[in-house]
Amino acid sequence: MKKTLMIASSLALVASLAACKKAEQPVAAMAATTDHAMDKMAASAAPKTGTGEGKVISVNAATGAISIQHGPIKQLGWPGMTMGFTAKPDLLKGIAVGDKVAFEIKGTGENYEVTSIHKE
Ligand SMILES: [Cu+2]
Predict the structure, then answer these.
(1) Tell me, what CATH number does 81's domain have?
(2) Ligand 1: centre distance to CA 80 (Å)
(3) Do both 37 and 71 map to the same domain?
(4) CA contacts within 13 A on the Cβ side of 76
(5) H or E segment to which residue 5 belongs
(6) Rg (the chain; Cα; Å)
(7) Which residues does UniProt assign to the signal peptide (predicted)?
(8) 34-64 pLDDT tens trace
């Protein structure tokens, strides 16, 4: 409670100092910091989805892990690469190394889960 009040009052102080000096720099710096923090929050909070095609490099239906050498995934702005995904074990039954597959993924950051996959 006290901490919040202190932060609020120091922010008010910064704002009033800035207004006093008509200096735009501190205000701009504060805005930039806030935007950055919000970008980070949005990136970790909202899962993204994408669709891709590729070749299965490794697959483990028991643990729900698959590695796919995939082409570009436009929705996520990814270039082609080989990478690992998690998946519900049931989804990977019947998928074998070397299979050409089309798949959908969902996730954030570097952690994406295959939500659907089928052989082409
Ligand atoms: Cu990738």
Answers:
(1) 2.40.50.320
(2) 6
(3) no
(4) 25
(5) helix 2-21
(6) 23
(7) 1-18
(8) 444 545 555 556 899 999 999 999 999 999 9
